[in-house]
């Protein structure tokens, strides 16, 4: 029903509304991680804000924290009491509550507060995927041949499109992953494949070719599948699969970042405009797709925030690591230099990603048509 409503809206609103909802959820969970652990270790939280700029709604809770919803929904923050030990205003310093400031806590407690944001995003992703795998099912790739690579061992053995592989060497195969693992373990060894074709079973013999992956030889058959089946999982299975899915997303993100840093795939870097468009598309495809996107981006947000770049949570953790090794914090000048450098780097990435979005989404062309 929601997807029908969004589809009926003008294109900007159809993307903007899901984007604001998605970003607000991710930011709230991230900042709540900081807030929760800060409260747990005895740090007073002065402000909890979702969004920046003037507040469109605010209130103070019984603990004295001001909760705000800003008019610019592009992030958020928690303001920790006494966060800066070098606060220049003596009136501000004199008003600090002893024992409840951030800077006087141990390194371990400060690190826990900072790391709690990304951890909260990872936990959100695991929760989202667990619920989805239980409610809608896990898309399991089926051992059905959709493609056969030219010149591959599969082509030589006579595999054809729509063949269903039911067993290898007498061992039943129920999904494509099991097929891949079996083939990978038998590089250069002949295997007997029992397949179903046209309502009857037959046996094909193929010898997986050996190829190098990460310094080891693995078997390669040369088939692919695009046939999936949704299988609902129980709580334990759903949790296990959600952790694996989150890990795979994080690994793929790190590989993509590594590729971009090395100069490959930089044009694939997307920014807020592309995320907004994808959010709208996911929402229009259905609630499950939109929730899946929340899980995927939650992993990305948690992981990126752990990068050792000043301004990000990982940068603060890096400062704490230096403090632990040196026995004292970095100088104020060094921290300010690091924060300015980190801010400049983030701004550069933001501008570059936005420019990629403008080109990929052909926004300039769209404006020309609109004005011409």
Structure overview:
The chain has 372 residues and is of the alpha+beta class. Among the domains are: 114-137 and 232-372, no CATH class; 140-230, Pdz3 Domain. Helix content is 53%, strand content 20%. The chain has helices at residues 2-8, 11-40, 90-94, 107-135, 153-157, 176-184, 235-261, 272-285, 287-305, 313-326, 332-360, 363-371, and strands spanning 45-60, 66-80, 138-141, 147-148, 164-168, 171-172, 191-197, 200-206, 209-213, 216-220, 223-224, 228-231. The strands form 5 sheets. A 4-stranded antiparallel beta sheet has the order 6-5-7-8. A two-stranded antiparallel ribbon has the order 1-2. A two-stranded antiparallel ribbon has the order 3-12. A hairpin with a 2-residue loop joins strand 7 (191-197) and strand 8. It is elongated, with a radius of gyration of 26 Å. The two termini are 37 Å apart.
- Tell me the radius of gyration: 26 Å
Percentage of residues in strands: 15-25%
Helical proportion, percent range: 40-55%
- What structural class do you assign from the helix and strand content? alpha+beta
Model regions low in confidence, pLDDT < 50 over at least 5 residues: 1-10, 363-372
Would you report the number of β strands? Answer: 12
Strand order in space, largest sheet? 6-5-7-8
The H-and-E topology, N to C, reads as HHEEHHEEHEEHEEEEEEHHHHHH
Mean pLDDT rating: 83
Kindly report how far apart the N and C termini lie. 37 Å
Number of helices: 12
The global form is elongated
The biggest sheet amounts to: 4 strands, antiparallel
